[in-house]
Hints:
The structure is a homodimer of 391-residue chains.
Chain A: E1 4-14, H1 22-25, E2 31-36, H2 40-43, H3 46-56, E3 60-64, H4 73-86, E4 90-95, H5 97-110, H6 117-120, E5 132-136, E6 148-153, E7 158-163, E8 171-174, H7 184-202, H8 210-232, H9 237-251, H10 266-278, H11 282-298, H12 303-312, H13 321-338, H14 354-364, H15 380-390
Parallel strand pairs in A: 1-8, 2-3, 2-4, 4-5, 5-8
Antiparallel strand pairs in A: 6-7
Helix pairs in contact in A: 4-5, 7-8, 7-9, 7-11, 8-9, 10-11, 10-14, 11-13, 11-15, 12-13, 14-15
Amino acid sequence: MGLTKYYTPTKVIFGEGALSQLPSLVKGYKKVLVHYGSDRIRKNGLFDQVTSLLEEAGAKWIPLGGVVPNPRLSLVREGIALCRKEGVDLVLAIGGGSVMDSAKCIGYGVSYDGDVWDFYSQKATPQASLPTACVLTMAAAGSEMSDSSVITNEDGWLKRGCNSDVCRPRFAILDPTLTYTLPPYQTAAATVDIMMHTMERYFTSGESLALTDNLATALLRTVMEAGEAALRKGDDKKARSDLMWASSLSHNGLMAMGNDTRGDWACHQLEHELSGMFDVAHGAGLAAIWPSWARYCIARDPSRFAKLGCSIFSLKPSGDMAADAKATVEAFEDFCTRIGMPIRISGLGIDLTEEQIDQLAHKCSFEGKRTIGAYLKLDEAAMREVYRAAK
Amino acid sequence: MGLTKYYTPTKVIFGEGALSQLPSLVKGYKKVLVHYGSDRIRKNGLFDQVTSLLEEAGAKWIPLGGVVPNPRLSLVREGIALCRKEGVDLVLAIGGGSVMDSAKCIGYGVSYDGDVWDFYSQKATPQASLPTACVLTMAAAGSEMSDSSVITNEDGWLKRGCNSDVCRPRFAILDPTLTYTLPPYQTAAATVDIMMHTMERYFTSGESLALTDNLATALLRTVMEAGEAALRKGDDKKARSDLMWASSLSHNGLMAMGNDTRGDWACHQLEHELSGMFDVAHGAGLAAIWPSWARYCIARDPSRFAKLGCSIFSLKPSGDMAADAKATVEAFEDFCTRIGMPIRISGLGIDLTEEQIDQLAHKCSFEGKRTIGAYLKLDEAAMREVYRAAK
């Protein structure tokens, strides 16, 4: 086992009415960029609630809306310029992972003299960030506690991530009741997204900590149950609460603690290319790719797949590890189908051509210059094979 | 459900050789108080390793050893004076919970004009603390990430706790190999101590989050298995790793997330009086009290006990909740007996007199002025009853 760092400085306020704590959390900040997506939060009153509380705390604010799923670099650049011009000292995201990721990228950019895309194209490493924080309205991406930000550069439609502790949000306001109105498809995609953040970490290349494995499978079982409950009843408070806190825990580092690698992440990389090209919901894209990635890996090493299935789907070990691993993937597919998620890319309404498969694998491998994955390393040819199987 | 705050800013470095990260962690600190217990760490070389790394990082240091289990206020006062005189800006604990708790109390004291005991006698609330940090050599108390510090005032032998986010350590170096030599009795007491920090939180008075319940039971099962493995083989790396990380997670707040109360804590209060009077190992004291506390509570509400037993001892629900609850306590007693822990106070070598029982209950109830517990509130008479049953 190598060394693992665990660092989650985000102050989380969790529960119905958590927004009431905003004034004390923003104490000391003078000017806040209120960053958000669609006008929905303007219409449902949340925007006014937040800005009133900021004013109550004596903080000035300016708005910047318009964040879209798979958030764009052009809006980030606008945000950076705005923060500089207005002397902003806190970027407050109201939304889900896309808005939070956009806020983090703005935070990086304001604290950097060069082009913020340098961090996402791995030309530079972030050393600082303007403070960011979050009022979460969608529990899925886990960006509210994570060290991760994923941005799409319209110039080439490159979707790239940047990980750094300096972008971990200062605080996160987690009120599960704000997610009651999330539509069924997004709820199902969110369920898969949360699961995948834990499953990516589960597929470590070397030794894992039993405690981490056991916490991971406890979280996965809870999330599947809560996802189905929230689909039956959107305002199921217990289910929405479990999903919300699971989204944070799934991506804050806890689920890789003590493991030899930070996880596999090949599916995430494959999905990033897909949603960069087609703009699909991240969780749905992951559901469409994972089974084919899993079957590709099982041929090389079925062990972790078999263990996972016995833990989260209560499969009885058959004595044949490859068979148990295969049953795990089928159980995952059954679950996805049950909650209305695709298990192939065609289920996203995309009919991939051979040429597109080549393009995706070529971009994902940085033109053949990198492999992805840790449980199993995938080169460009392997990526093509997984995309083709997932077609 | 009310609001829960989750705030764990401690930077954790986990794994064999974690000490190598010390120089980067102390960057910026100029003078370090190296706080420790017995001379064991002087003899085994750890003290020299730590101080060499401090010097390598350009930090000056002064030593203060002599912390004992159930750490004393008099040494804390010495530490406060020393820090002021020497201009210390970081208190680094090398040890387990006692040394860390002592370091936290020194941290409070240096940042306060009044008497530091004010915080422990609830006359004042800490507003600040000198930074503290930890090189952990014993995994049990979880103080390395917690907001808690427990100190014994020799004037009246009062053992009192103080909880505040301002005392959360800046960093914690968690190298499981440093705990290989922990003797069996301490390893068993540590196992119970870790379990109890989660079990106290499990016994919330109102609603609990399913995710938290499931993480808690996953942790408890893992800890029981790891505890027994570490007793069989002191240098079992996997077991020591599980115990070490579980000690932190059990007491950093995770295990109460989303629950209506921060937990019950009656057993802790009852044990604090006991170990204030008799200086017993905290985990052993908890093992001696919990079964009697549990039976006292079961008569009023067996539900959480029954649920716990089904989850962690794989008891089959019998349909009779009170019977399942009773079976849970018996299974806990079996486990304690198996690892060499007492299940009554007599097992600590203490033959409590009626007069002592009265004294303990009187002190624990702050002379009849407070109740303890959340799952069930205990007044002075109830405390007497539990002590007597646990005798």
